[in-house]
Design goal:
The protein is mostly helical. The chain has helices at about 5-10, 15-20, 25-60, 65-120, 125-150. It has a domain at about 25-115: Helix Hairpins (Orthogonal Bundle), CATH 1.10.287.1060. It has five helices and no strands. The longest helix is centred in the middle third of the chain and has 59 residues, at about 65-120. It is a peripheral membrane protein.
Length: about 160
């Protein structure tokens, strides 16, 4: 079975069918393969168009019938080339959308892991204990400030009199 028929008939590994569809990596790989195949076909058609144009020029006025046939084939090839361009554009759009979707899924999954980690870190914390700790810290800071103020005041040895 050719790659294209596998692509359109849904052929693929048994593992991907068992899971309810291909993984994003498998789908991206297939889209890239299809893009590559269409690009090669584009190149082929472009060379055929050039050959038919050269043949039409060669026959020119000598053999108008052969020149017209070459131009008709060239026009057919150009139509095929135009269709391939449209198909490639659609496939590129789909591939980019799939890549973005896969990226968003990974980001969301990692954010979920981070949320679980934060939950695990916070499960041993009690708000009442935190409030008590913060009050203790504030009290100790106040005591430290009072001590600092007391030390920084100039000692008034003999400057002040008590009448």
């Amino acid at each position: 079975m050719s790659k294209i028929s596998k692509f359109f008939k849904g052929g693929g590994s048994a593992a991907s069918k068992g899971r309810g569809g291909p993984s994003p990596q498998e789908a991206l790989a297939r889209l890239r393969e299809t893009e590559e195949m269409l690009s090669k076909k584009q190149e082929y058609l472009e060379t055929r168009i050039e050959r038919e144009l050269a043949a039409a020029r060669q026959h020119g006025t000598k053999n108008k019938r052969a020149a017209l046939q070459a131009l008709k084939r060239k026009k057919r090839y150009e139509k095929q080339l135009s269709q391939i361009d449209g198909t490639l554009s659609t496939i590129e759009f789909q591939r980019e959308a799939l890549e973005n979707s896969h990226t968003n899924t990974e980001v969301l999954k990692n954010m979920g892991y981070a949320a679980q980690a934060m939950k695990k870190v916070h499960e041993n914390m009690d708000l009442n204990k935190i409030d008590d700790l913060m009050q203790d810290i504030t009290e100790q800071q106040d005591v430290a400030q009072e001590i600092s103020d007391a030390i920084s005041n100039r000692a008034a040895f003999g400057d002040e009199f008590d009448e």
